[in-house]
Design goal:
By secondary structure, the protein is an alpha+beta fold. It has 15 helices and 21 strands. The longest helix is centred in the first third of the chain and has 60 residues.
Length: about 625
């Protein structure tokens, strides 16, 4: 039969079990507000009984283990929703900031400046020889140009801020991945005998897993899940091999981690490229595969796919806005310059041209259309004395022999433009063609009046031949090349009024000819606001008025912002529901712990009473001996 000392041992196990319960409950209460802490429960089982006559006698209680009340399935949903929430939070915040750059309300914004710009051209048309209006036109053009430029700069600065955040966040991902790998090693060591669960280490790992999901949408894979039915029907524990991946790229394998590389050393525009290094040293680009968490939002906003030549993003909301602003400004610049080229001058110099003279115009990167334009020469009284149609087709090049299909060949060809038998009053007698290669290797085009003809007061102009009186049906040759331009620049980053016109506003011309009172160029500029322009934005093309094109940009920004706000509300609702479910399983409830504390306190007192009773029994036995 069991001895009295066995009964004493039973009381001791009761005391020990109650004390462990109190310790665990106190640990839960102390960490009730600790981020990521999971409540723990003591699993107690009856000790192996002693076989004796008349049968098995109980041997007290044993503490089998202390386990977390944790559901991995709920936690996976929690981290997945957290990843979406982090993405949505950052997307909403960034797009709301972007939308402030387009305050298109009455008398505020680029559209209002554009309206005032055209109004000033109307005033100039009404008073073509008024120098005060010319000065006012320059000032209004500067206001419009500066507003377009500053808006583009704001969007570009925001994009650069996001680009810098990519490096910071990728470095944080690598730091967390290393911590997880180290924790995996510590957990494996602590649980190597399979006697104990490293509960607090697992809590720390779960916090890091959550942070990885928030940052980059990382997912955790494990070998198997074991149920903990003795604690809770929904509680379970992961066991076996462990890995963490980002869209198929393993960044943690057990106790080793594979850092993600981030660098802008080889990017000419300074944009960070993200890559995964294989074991053989090959770098695999990751920008287009990361679509979760804050980094996923950063890439979708900045642009993930990078152009292999320029290094600039080919997609992304901010890059699309920049491209649209550039396309808007380019369309405005080229259409205005194409019109202004019809004002008579003695010399026209193009912008820098970065294509070869032997390359066909239609295959080049300039926005030239097939059709024709006229070179027109005026005398000192504004009379047209010569005109020649220059044709552009798919085979037209910039340079070539006289009489060829090239621009040079058509200008220098010996043609009796006036059909008067006079060989000295044709376009080739007035206008000189010069294709210049600069010291930098870049090219430029120059049309210049013959010096003798210039001394006699002659001037010349370029005017597009329009198929249906709409400016968009012309070749856009002068506008695309910047011949006799009103605007300098080629996109929203550098749009400004021609430097020579800014320095000398009185030199601005209102008409086709140098005759006082001619305001046809000004009237064409006014008409421009009502006509459609072909705006090129990357591979896309928009045929719209200048007002409509800017409305497209502002509306798209507003639309994506409103959509982000709507998604944010939906995702926040989903997150709150999943978080509540997760907390209901794992978070410490003070009320529940206080109840457990009372239970274990009562149990401890009862076990102590058992020991006191055994002590009295032993005293009785000792008293018999006396």
């Amino acid at each position: 039969m069991a001895s009295i000392f066995n009964a004493l041992h039973i009381g001791y196990t009761g005391l020990n079990a109650a004390q462990v319960g109190i310790n665990t409950t106190g640990h839960n209460i102390a960490n009730a507000e600790t981020d990521g802490y999971t409540r723990q429960r003591v699993i107690a089982v009856n000790a192996t009984p002693i076989s004796a006559n008349p049968g098995q006698v109980g041997n007290g209680v044993e503490i089998q283990t202390i386990k977390r009340v944790f559901d991995n399935f709920v936690f996976d949903r929690y981290t997945d929703t957290y990843s979406k929430k982090e993405y949505s939070d950052f997307e909403k915040q960034t797009l709301e900031q972007l939308s402030t750059y387009f305050p298109e309300i009455d008398e505020v914004g680029i559209k209002s400046d554009l309206q005032e710009y055209y109004n000033m051209w109307q005033s100039f048309a009404d008073n073509p020889d008024n120098d005060a209006i010319k000065i006012a036109l320059v000032k209004q053009t500067e206001i419009l140009s500066n507003h377009i430029h500053s808006t583009r700069t704001q969007v570009s600065d925001l994009q650069n801020q996001l680009n810098n955040q990519i490096e910071v966040n990728i470095n944080e991902v690598n730091s967390i991945a290393k911590k997880i790998a180290d924790l995996n090693k510590s957990i494996d060591t602590a649980e190597s005998g399979k006697l104990y669960d490293a509960n607090d280490l697992r809590d720390k790992r779960n916090v890091l897993e959550r942070d990885m999901a928030r940052l980059i949408g990382a997912e955790t894979n494990y070998e198997q899940i074991e149920s903990n039915m003795q604690i809770d029907s929904s509680s379970n524990t992961i066991t076996g091999s462990y890995s963490m991946n980002v869209n198929g790229f393993n960044i943690v394998d057990g106790s080793t981690y594979h850092p993600i590389r981030v660098s802008n050393d080889k990017n000419p525009s300074g944009f960070y490229e993200i890559s995964y290094e294989r074991q053989d040293g090959v770098l695999i680009p990751m920008e287009e595969t990361i679509n979760g968490g804050k980094i996923g939002a950063l890439l979708d906003l900045r642009g993930g796919a990078l152009d292999t030549t320029s290094g600039v993003p080919k997609d992304g909301i901010l890059q699309n806005t920049i491209s649209q602003l550039d396309g808007f400004a380019r369309g405005l610049i080229e259409s205005a310059n194409n019109i202004y080229a019809s004002s008579a001058t003695t010399r026209m110099d193009s912008n820098i041209i970065d294509f070869n003279s032997s390359e066909t115009l239609m295959n080049s990167n300039i926005n030239v259309n097939t059709g024709s334009f006229n070179l027109i020469v005026y005398d000192i009284d504004g009379n047209e004395v010569a005109s020649r149609e220059i044709n552009i087709n798919v085979a037209t090049r910039m340079t070539g022999e006289s009489g060829s299909n090239s621009i040079e060949g058509q200008i220098t060809a010996t043609v009796d433009d006036n059909a008067d038998g006079n060989a000295n009053n044709d376009i080739d007698d007035f206008v000189n063609f010069n294709w210049a290669t600069l010291a930098s290797g870049e090219n430029a085009l120059e049309f210049a009046l013959d010096s003798f003809k210039e001394s006699q007061g002659y001037t010349f102009a370029i005017r597009d031949s329009l198929s249906n009186d709409e400016f968009s049906t012309g070749t856009n040759f002068a506008g695309a090349l910047g011949m006799n331009r009103f605007f300098d620049g080629n996109d929203a980053s550098n749009i400004t009024i021609n430097a020579s016109l800014k320095a000398n506003p009185s030199s601005i011309k209102a008409g086709y000819t140098p005759v006082v009172g001619d305001s046809r160029v000004s009237l064409d500029m006014v008409q421009q606001q009502f006509e459609d322009i072909n705006f090129k934005v990357g591979p896309s093309s928009y045929k719209a008025s200048t007002y409509a094109m800017f409305d497209i940009i502002a509306t798209e920004v507003g639309t994506v912002t409103n959509a982000a706000i709507s998604r944010h509300e939906t995702i926040n609702t989903q997150f709150n529901a999943v978080e509540m479910e997760y907390f209901s399983v794992s978070k410490v409830s003070i009320d529940e712990e206080m109840t457990n504390l009372i239970k274990y306190q009562t149990s401890y007192g009862a076990a102590a009473k058992v020991i006191t009773t055994i002590d009295q029994m032993m005293q009785t036995l000792l008293g018999i001996k006396q």
